[in-house]
Design brief:
- With 628 residues, this protein is of the alpha+beta class.
- It is built from 16 helices and 18 strands.
- A hairpin with a 5-residue loop joins strand 5 and strand 6.
């Protein structure tokens, strides 16, 4: 190697006045490589994150479902431990209260874990996606609802349930009322929470692309639809029951047994009755009687001009058999209380109405009873026995009416005993709830503060006077017969086209069928005390058929079996009432069609269900919402 070559191989240092020799630029290519790798990583992460999120949601959704299933199992066990009637003579579980609390704590823990599993960035991000996020919103909302229900609704409710005494007797009602009073604020808050949760679940997506989520939401909605009114009932009970049951002084109530073989607005003809005494949470019956005792009693109750105009000629305040023609139970209760005071001089604190179906529910709890004549009264035979068989058994009217009183007295003793038996009391309360839910148990208080709380609940039998879609079919027997035991009813309410002027067309179709046999019925059942001017046969019936429309509605036409018919009209508590006097021969069917114009409203109408022997078959078709 020459000297020159050696010198040229060594880099020269820049000297004064010389430019620096630029360094080789191979490093430029090394600088680009990390940027490309970052880009690749970013693209990879962008692709993987949604997949990972989807996997995370799927896994946590399965885990949440498992937790909710476990919570449901706990609640099923809890319900079975509370609602069934205990076998008489069985040994009560001394640890029942602790078992209930353990079950609800376990259910609450499972629901809380399900809620936590369905929260976080992945679930939030999925829920806000249009359409694709609907199932995520539904699952998140359902888990949150379950968490609130078990923790904020069922927990205070179970804590308010009284524990059993060692022998299960002697203090059932007293302990239950004491527990209600002491937990009243918590129960009231729990009822409000149940209402809010129900409203929240209603707005969750209903029809998503994931049927499993839709079914879960629907099942939860059904449970809330049952729970919410029960919680409200319990909340009202916590505020009114102690005073109504004599916690602050002795109370007396008129108890009417309605006979729905002869229809009346609140259910059936007021037949047998009793006076119920409540004193310091202990119940007893002071006396029993039947309607003949009050037939000639007249009252001076003023129920307003609309009432007088609607029922003129029937005189409900002065004719006992017509005292409950209105479906608004407080009217009948006020008449009964006034009649009792006029008859005996005694002032009552309220009135209660029951019917044979109510007795059947009570007998499921107390077990069969035996009447003085040896007749066995059971949950399975009490309705048929009092509404049909007794008319064939007793030709004498006085003896038959005495039979009704004897049946009421026989059922009353075990019923009172059950109120003080902590083993049977939960099942008895369930029976009471079932009776009031179907409109067969109604309660009115003569004390205004109590009545204001009661009238918001279905068991008050209050005809609502607020605006909104409403449909009510009410029948009153006009023949004086006992043929309504054989009556079938159906009603279809259908919203039609929207009209100018803020109105909407509504069509109501009522079908009534008289299934009474043409022969073989006792004369008392088929009698015609109305003495019609036209010929009739045994089994032919006559009804006053009244339709209660929405506030502000007006009828435009009506037909019976396709022929135009004239309607009598009136007003009750703001509702237009349209009535047709209908002859219904044995074995026949009549179809009443009403065409109405009602104020534009949305949603399903509130339905008035008159409790008779056979349930009303109602179909409600709200149609499409009208534009503004």
């Amino acid at each position: 190697m020459t000297e020159r070559s050696i010198c040229t191989a060594v880099p020269r240092r820049p000297g004064p006045g010389r430019d620096a020799v630029p360094a080789p630029r191979l490093g430029r290519f090394r600088d680009r490589a990390p940027g490309r790798r970052v880009l690749r990583y970013a693209l990879l992460v962008t692709a993987v994150l949604p997949l990972a999120g989807a996997v995370w949601i799927a896994v946590t959704a399965l885990l949440a479902r498992s937790e909710l299933s476990a919570a449901q199992r706990d609640l099923d066990t809890l319900r079975q431990s509370v609602t069934p009637a205990q076998v008489p003579g069985s040994t009560p579980d001394a640890a029942a209260a602790s078992v209930r609390e353990r079950l609800v704590r376990s259910a609450a823990a499972h629901a809380a874990r399900a809620h936590r599993l369905t929260t976080g960035p992945a679930w939030y991000s999925a829920a806000v996606l249009p359409l694709l996020g609907d199932p995520a919103r539904t699952v998140r909302g359902a888990a949150y609802a379950a968490d609130r229900l078990t923790g904020q609704v069922l927990t205070p409710l179970v804590q308010a349930m009284p524990s059993q005494t060692p022998d299960g007797r002697g203090s059932g009602m007293t302990r239950a009322l004491a527990a209600l009073q002491s937990h009243a604020p918590q129960i009231e808050q729990a009822a409000r929470t149940a209402t809010r949760v129900r409203a929240d679940v209603r707005v969750l997506p209903r029809s998503t692309w994931l049927p499993t989520a839709d079914r879960a939401r629907a099942a939860l909605q059904r449970q809330l639809d049952r729970l919410d009114p029960v919680m409200t009932d319990v909340s009202v009970a916590a505020r009114v029951l102690p005073s109504m049951l004599g916690a602050h002084g002795e109370r007396h109530y008129f108890l009417a047994f309605q006979n729905f073989a002869e229809a009346r607005g609140t259910g059936g003809l007021p037949g047998a009755f009793a006076v119920l005494r409540a004193d310091r949470d202990r119940l007893s019956f002071e006396r029993f009687g039947n309607n003949t005792e009050l037939d000639k009693t007249k009252t001076d109750v003023d129920l307003g001009a609309d009432f007088n105009a609607l029922y003129q000629g029937n005189d409900p305040t002065r004719v006992w058999a017509n005292s409950n023609m209105s479906p608004h139970f407080p009217y009948a209760a006020r008449i009964w209380a006034a009649a009792w005071r006029a008859h005996t001089g005694e002032k009552l604190d309220g009135a209660i109405a029951v019917d044979p179906v109510t007795l059947s529910l009570f007998l499921k709890v107390t077990g069969p009873v035996r009447m003085d004549d040896g007749t066995a009264l059971t949950a399975g035979n009490v309705v048929d026995l009092t509404e049909r068989a007794s008319y064939a058994r007793y030709k004498d009217t006085t003896r038959r009416k005495a039979f009704f009183v004897d049946a009421a007295r026989a059922a009353a003793g075990p019923l009172i005993a059950a109120t003080h038996d902590s083993r049977r009391l939960p099942a008895l309360l369930v029976a009471v709830n079932d009776a009031q839910r179907t409109g067969r148990l109604k309660v009115w208080s003569a004390h205004p503060q109590e009545q204001r709380l009661l009238e918001s609940r279905p068991y008050s039998g209050t005809l609502p006077d607020t605006p909104g879609p409403f449909a009510g079919l009410v029948l009153n027997n006009a023949a004086g017969s006992k043929l309504d035991y054989y009556l079938d009813r159906s009603m279809v309410w259908e919203a039609g086209e929207c009209r100018s002027g803020g109105e909407r067309a509504v069509t109501v179709t009522v079908t009534l069928t008289n299934r009474a046999p043409a022969s073989g019925l006792p004369g008392y059942v088929t009698q015609r005390v109305d003495h019609p001017a036209y010929p009739t046969r045994p089994g032919d019936n006559r009804l006053l058929v009244s339709y209660y429309a929405s506030v502000g509605a007006d009828v435009t036409g009506a037909t019976v079996n396709g022929r135009p018919v004239m309607l009598a009209s009136g007003i009750e508590r703001g509702h237009p009432v349209y009535t047709v006097d209908m002859e219904l021969p044995a074995g026949s069917r009549r179809t009443l069609v009403l065409h109405l114009l009602e104020p534009r409203t949305t949603g399903t109408p509130t339905l008035l269900r008159q409790p008779l022997a056979r349930p009303l078959r109602a179909t409600l078709k709200p149609g499409r919402a009208c534009g503004v």
